[in-house]
Design brief:
Structural class: mainly alpha
Helix content: 55-70%
Oligomer: single chain
Largest sheet: 4 strands, mixed
Strand order of the largest sheet: 4-3-5-6
Strand content: 5-15%
Number of domains: 3
Order of helices and strands: HEHHHHHEHHHHHHHEHEEEHHH
Distance between the termini: 56 Å
Length: 393
Amino acid sequence: MSDGTPTRAFFEQRVNVRAVGLLRLLVGLITLIHLWPFLQDAVPGRYFAERFFVPFFEWFPVLGVEGYRATLLVGMGGALALAAGVFSRAAAGLTLAVVSFNVLSNELHFGHNRAFLMTLLFGLTVLPSGVAFSVDAWRVRREGRAPDESAPRWQLVMVRGLACTPYLASGFSKLVDPDWWGGVVMADRIARYRHVAEGMGVPAGLIDPIASPAFNAVMWKAVVLTELFIGAGLWFRRTHVAAMVAAVGFHVLIEITSSVSVFSFLGLAGLLLWVTPRVRERVVRLDPRDPAGQRIARRLARLDWLHRFDVRPTEGAAFVVEDVDGFRWTGGAAGRLVWSRLPLSAPFVAPRRLVDLLRRRSRGGPDSRRPRNGAVAGASAQTQARRMAGPKT
């Protein structure tokens, strides 16, 4: 690396960021949800500056209620423009400015969910998020040009690094805190709020074991290690899928058990940053004359928003998905590979897909090319395709 060539290659290489367009849409909608309660409270008597508050900086301006309400309206307008993809980078910058201003106006406004939102908004000001799923892209197509869906690789790596900080920072801070690592904090919190759970009808027989010190001593070690695994595991190919499955389970569990505002939604949306930044890498071969094959092709045309697959109809072909390393998946495993790469179905199919990957490694290692997983000896092309297509709709 002494001549600097690998470094130049890293900074000059461009990657596909189509998935960031979908992230932009979701973050815009999530920001609207985030700002709405503040706007509702921005009336005389409930405006935060009419009660106890402490700005992050003594010199920070404190707006009157009318100015504060106008600022929030501007932020919501920016969030709408961001979701629609209208002047996407400028909309991201404007929305980031309003969200940051709101947080800095009062230390009581700070929260990890808002810091995470600011991080993702900053990422959307860096990356060209208007290249897909946006009015910006539609406008480019109307001019007879194809939107450039690429961005410098270093920008994506930087934003990924920022998106990992909530997991790594939270996990490490709990790891070095004896009370968190030992489960004392959560056991105390459950004891304090058990009356809320009881009021919602949760039986005491379920609360008692969860509130026990022994359970929390084990449970919260697992939670801390899960946070650290997500933050580190997303970076490596062999742990990538497992880390995404862990992230989905982690955020679903948090949303069910805690009040964390938009944090869980941001965490799930942020996984789009980890979509492989290349398109049409996997090849789907199917028989176009078979009704099941036709249904597969139609569903992929509608749901493969991120262009993960290259569909190649081949008469008489068995249903096969050729993976990026040349491995050929067939039958049910091929179907799970496809659905695990489509945004709408990925959270539900990813755990089964992880099982397929672990089974494959146990049978021959990651470089094996023989189609074992999901293959059934003597199965017809139509039978294998129907497993993928599912019931008729």
